[in-house]
Write a structure and sequence with these properties.
Length: 801
Amino acid sequence: MEFSHKAIEKKWKKYWEENNTNKTTNTSDKKSYVLDMFPYPSGAGIHVGHVKGYTATDVFSRYKRMNGYDVLHPMGWDAFGLPAEQYALKTGNDPIDFTLENIKTFKRQLKMMGFSYDFDKEISTANPNYYKITQWIFNQLYKKGLAENRDVEVNWCQELGTVLANDEIIEKDGLMVSERGEHPVTKRKMRQWVLKITEYADRLLEGLDELEWNNSIKDLQRNWIGKSTGVELDFLVNDIKVPVFTTRIDTIYGVSYIVLAPEHEQVLNITTPEQLSEVQTYIELAKNKSEIDRKDESKPKTGVFTGSYAINPHTGELVQVWVSDYVLANYGTGAVMAVPAHDKRDWEFATKFNLEKKFVIENKTDEKAFVGEGKIINSDILNGMDKKQAIETMTKIAVEHGWGREQTNYKLRDWLFSRQRFYGEPFPVLYGPNQEITLIEDLPVELPRITNIKPSGTGESPLANVEEWVNVEINGVKYRRETNTMPQSAGSSWYYLAYILADGENEFIDIDSAEAKKRFEKWMPVDLYVGGQEHAVGHLLYARFWNYVLYDLGITSVKEPFKQLFNQGMILGPDGRKMSKSWGNVINPDDIVSTHGADSLRLYEMFMGPLDASLPWSEDGLDSALKWIHRAYRMVVSAELTDVNDTKLDFVYNDVVKNVSEMIESLKFNTAISQLMIFVNAVYKHEGPVYRPYIEGFVKMLSIYAPFIGEELWEKLGHAPSITKQAWPVFDPSKLVSNTVVVALQINGKLRATIEVEKGTVKDKLLELAKKHENIISYIKDKQIIKEIAVVDRIVNIVIK
Ligand code: ANZ
């Protein structure tokens, strides 16, 4: 009565493949689009962390299908990217071939896990049919004025030979380094493509409100967009106008100096000859500091006096002008009015350089900056007002006098869209003799296959070396191709739409066709999107932006692409540390499937805890999963089945169906398994034949977690495959009224135990059960029983002496 998971896995994989069991259906008016964050096909294959999220979406997809939904559950490859390019550089391999090999491994592993992906919809961002559409979208962005080629300050990584986006950089010892490889990163001005995501900042902010996302992720996006409303005020320094951006115009009487960022274009014009060399040295020093470091409030403040004074436009007071790197060049106007008494950074700066602190808000302490709210003081016409009133009053005055303007700023920067890399999407762009831009409409512009993909070292992409590709002649006019490529986030910003367009592996219908529109209307938005928290800002913001643009173009049918987002927790090593090659604590799914089977691995990862928890790997947990699967298997194959319901399992079965259904709907995959366990225990305790529909219902529920054993048992129960095409069990609410009661067992009137019995159990039987109860036995042995009282459905009382 045991089974071999290897034999069963082989059998059903073959069956599903041959019968195209997982093909997306289009027959219902209910749909569910269940999406995983697609993997980067690295050389390492999938890890058990992938398995966690992918199992969760698979369980959910199977559940929805059995509930009569058309389910879109696809998978593909985020295939362009730096690691493949670097691997190729190191080994002399071709990144295209290398990636294709990795994809094969990933696909084999996903099939090994029994995931019900419709591989007819498999996509790869590096396939020319795919990036043809990525390039087409770029062209639309350009035509809408949302893509622009301009000189921008970029994060340059010499080692990687490319610029990096802010979210590809981390800080180490106060310096910027690349997230991949931790190579030094410096600021540098370069001509680059940028996408104007900032034009969508407000909509990206407002759109968040309607989404079923975890609040912490919404907040991360809100902070990243960083909307802030305030006023720009003109301070005059000699005859030079220096606007500052403030959200606290109510503190204008408390200004004790102004500060310019070292990069501010007026710094040298303002600085007096005596201070010039000191200021110049300071500017040089600031160049290599990371923005993260400059924003870090725990770092000591630095700065220099310019020797000049500015006029407070409202009070007419003269205040010193300083330069400091705590003011960022690319936010607001790159200059601030400092109010040390009410701003922490200004307080520290003023303390260090002995500058005045003027309190203009009532509070109890003058030992630190008071950033709370209170009554305005020491401020002439504003005295007695609260913050809101004072801001309104002063803003009005500033605007009327012409030295102030209301202003909304965003922290969000335009999306830097060029990479000086080989392995990415080429831009469909030609530069004419006078650098004029011509878009190529005949797509795709294919990435040439070349052997030398070394960075040119000059800041240009390796493609710049491929003369025969770069130079194009059309009607006698000579053009040069854009040699930068797009970032990895280009392909991942629309892949959720690509699956809908796919008819066969990397075969797509036109994105602007009527058929595409119909399909988008059917499938969008994604109903459930599961993946790691690391994509909270970058990917999710870019993808939302592209979807908004495509919505505005009349292509997609909804503004927000991802209705519900769920961030899965990590699987840590048995040592509690993050799994990593360097710790030697990585668990390979191939090994586990070989020893315990795919069903056990799936079941274990779903049972280890709530989906969003990060928990360590446990061999014991895995062994228990395998044991339980065998226990469930034995139960089904050895049960004597009957078509006559003795009603004894009515309550537990219906209760379990109800609970499992509700738990899957709310993504509580672990507690749903506990329910299945309760059912198995009840059947083992049950005497006599078991009502067939209950066993069948159980096998259906089991099959969404353990699809191999699910199919096998379904067949063993005498049915033709596939169990995936069966309807989900329904529960009968009338059976949920419990037919048992709890009876109190007393000794001399004191409660000593309780027992659960069927309603109406007769007095003699109650007494018999009570006297068999171990607690009661311990009281009555060696004692004389004087009286026995039993009330049906209520109580047993034994009086002893
Ligand atoms: C005077 C003031 C008084 C300020 C006060 C704050 C508190 P958010 O909310 O992030 O927009 N600021 C403006 N531009 C800056 C820059 N380029 N680099 C660093 N700091 C800058 O913050 C706006 C506030 O941050 C502004 O309001 C300004 O300081 C500072 F009691 O002006 B405030």
